[in-house]
Amino acid sequence: MRCLKITLKTHSDTRWASKYNAVHSLYCQFGGVIKALRDISTNPIFGDGVANAESILKQFDLEFAYFLVMWDKILNQIYRVNKLLQSSNISIDQASKMINCLNVSLQEMRDSGNEQIKTEAISICDKVGIKSELKIKRTIKRKVMSGENSSREDISADQFLTLEYYKVLDNMVAQMKWRFEQLSNIADDFQFLSAHSLSVTPVEKLKKYAADLAIKYNEDIDQEIINEIEFFKYQVKAILPDLNATALNILNAIKKYELDSTCPNLMTAYRLFLTMPVTVASGERSFSKLKLTKTYLRSTMSQNRLTNSAILSIEHEITKSIDFEDVIEDFASIKSRKIKF
């Protein structure tokens, strides 16, 4: 349609990005969609599309505009954090802070954003020529318990929108806290290994945190980490000029100054922390890449070749940096049938 600059998107039940793209494309082009539907509904050349367009237009009212604005603002916040969480370089502590900040922003939106959304929805309706009035009152039906009289609580349509707004955000904040509770606990377990904590936390507290960590991850870390953390606390200022360094910077500094033999348990703790996945996005990408690698033309390849092909495809940046002349020469020398005298 010439009325639309961006194609309207469909949404997926499993991808937050698709939900935001679907809502945002409609939000940005709401006026254009209304115009296109009006053109279709008045043009008999579209046949059955005329009735469909008229039916859709009847659903576009102030209530629809209100929920469109509401979901665009909510999904905008979630979408941007979701993109950051899928980064390959993000650590658990950074992810935990981002999610906490997202919860704060949603809570602030819940406390003070309702009237702003109503105002914007009314403004959108006025621009596109939709009545900026709520149609009917809603009736809340409450389940009657034994011994109670039947009752109905009548509320205005405006109160209904407000209740739905609070219900959505309250449920979302509660779900976010529940789903990422374990992530937050893991970040707290390793918090004492940050450069700032090592520099300002007393030795006795650091030793207590290290002992708790050794108990929790007893298959990888032993109690010797208590002595290592006491030693490392006073060395961290020497090997790290920046006390805001990340866990990866600290691990690289340990390797650079050859402290891995002195503090093996500490190094294991940093490796555990940095290799714990924040999301399952990388695993899902691997399966997506596998579908692209194993086509119907490669249906007879062996498992070993499929695995190697998938690794080359997933790690394409490393693959591009390989000098294939050396690889070819190594392969030729292995397969060579000539006898050297």
TrEMBL record:
Record domain HAT C-terminal dimerisation: where: 239-317
GO molecular function list: protein dimerization activity
Top-level taxonomy: Eukaryota, Metazoa, Ecdysozoa, Arthropoda, Hexapoda
One Pfam family here: Dimer_Tnp_hAT
Name of the protein: HAT C-terminal dimerisation domain-containing protein
PANTHER family recorded: AC-LIKE TRANSPOSASE-RELATED (PTHR45749:SF35), PTHR45749
